[in-house]
C-alpha cells in the first residue's frame, strides 16, 4: 500500500501523502499550495472553498467564526485528505489543536501539518494588498488569539513565511524530506 502511494515527485524525492498547509490568514496558504502541489504531484484544494456560505457571510461581515461554525468545514477538509490514494494538499487555518485533531480523526493516519508562521505586520500587509478575499484584515487579531501552534507530539513542521515564496516552498520540501527520512511511519507516504 505504501509503495503505491509513494511516488517520486518532480524533485526526485518523496513527500507525505496528506498535507495541510495551516496558519492564520495572509500566511500564504493558498499561494504556496497552488505553487507547491504540481512540484510534488499532488492535488491541491483551497480549504476556503469548503466553507458553507453562512461562514463566508459571517467573515465578510467582520464576525469571527465560532467553533460550532468550523466543525462541518473541518470535517470536509478531513474527508478530502482521506479520499483515494492520491497525494493531497489542503490549505486550512487549523488554528487550534482540537481543529487539527478533528481533521486527523476524519482523515486517518498520515496527516502532516505544515505551519506557515509569520509576524503580524507582514501578514497584515499581505492581507491589505489582496483583493477579492472575504476575510477582512481586522479579523487577523482574532486568528492570532485562537492560534495554537502545533506541539511536539503532532506530526508537523514549521516554516517561516518572511522569505520569497520560492524559498519558502524549498524550505517546506526540505523539511518534509527530513521528516520522511527520520520517520518509520509508512502512513506518511
From TrEMBL:
Q: Name one Pfam family in it.
A: SKI
Report the EC code(s) recorded for this entry.
Answer: 2.7.1.12
TM region positions: none
Which pathway does the protein contribute to? Carbohydrate acid metabolism; D-gluconate degradation
Q: What class of enzyme is it?
A: transferase
Per its record, what are the GO molecular function terms?
ATP binding; gluconokinase activity
Catalytically driven reaction(s)? D-gluconate + ATP = 6-phospho-D-gluconate + ADP + H(+)
Q: Which family does it belong to?
A: Belongs to the gluconokinase GntK/GntV family.
* Name the UniProt record assigns to this protein: Gluconokinase
User: What organism does the record attribute this protein to?
Assistant: Chondrus crispus (Carrageen Irish moss)
Amino acid at each position: 500500500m505504501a509503495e503505491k502511494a509513494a511516488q517520486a515527485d518532480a524533485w526526485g524525492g518523496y513527500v507525505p501523502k496528506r498535507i495541510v498547509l495551516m496558519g492564520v490568514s495572509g500566511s500564504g496558504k493558498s499561494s504556496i499550495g497552488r505553487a507547491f502541489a504540481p512540484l510534488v504531484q499532488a492535488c491541491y484544494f483551497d480549504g476556503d472553498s469548503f466553507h458553507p456560505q453562512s461562514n463566508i457571510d459571517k467573515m465578510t461581515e467582520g464576525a469571527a467564526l465560532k467553533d460550532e461554525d468550523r466543525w462541518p468545514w473541518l470535517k470536509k477538509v478531513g474527508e478530502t485528505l482521506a479520499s483515494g490514494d492520491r497525494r493531497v494538499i489542503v490549505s486550512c487555518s487549523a488554528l487550534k489543536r482540537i481543529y487539527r485533531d478533528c481533521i486527523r480523526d476524519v482523515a486517518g493516519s498520515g496527516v502532516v501539518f505544515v505551519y506557515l508562521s509569520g509576524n503580524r505586520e507582514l501578514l497584515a500587509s499581505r492581507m491589505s494588498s489582496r483583493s477579492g478575499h472575504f476575510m477582512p484584515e481586522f479579523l487577523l487579531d482574532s486568528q492570532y488569539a485562537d492560534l495554537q501552534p502545533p506541539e511536539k507530539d503532532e506530526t508537523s513542521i514549521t516554516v517561516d513565511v518572511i522569505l520569497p515564496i520560492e524559498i519558502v516552498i524549498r524550505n517546506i520540501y526540505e523539511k518534509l524530506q527530513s521528516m520522511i527520512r527520520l520517520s518509520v511511519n509508512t502512513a506518511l507516504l
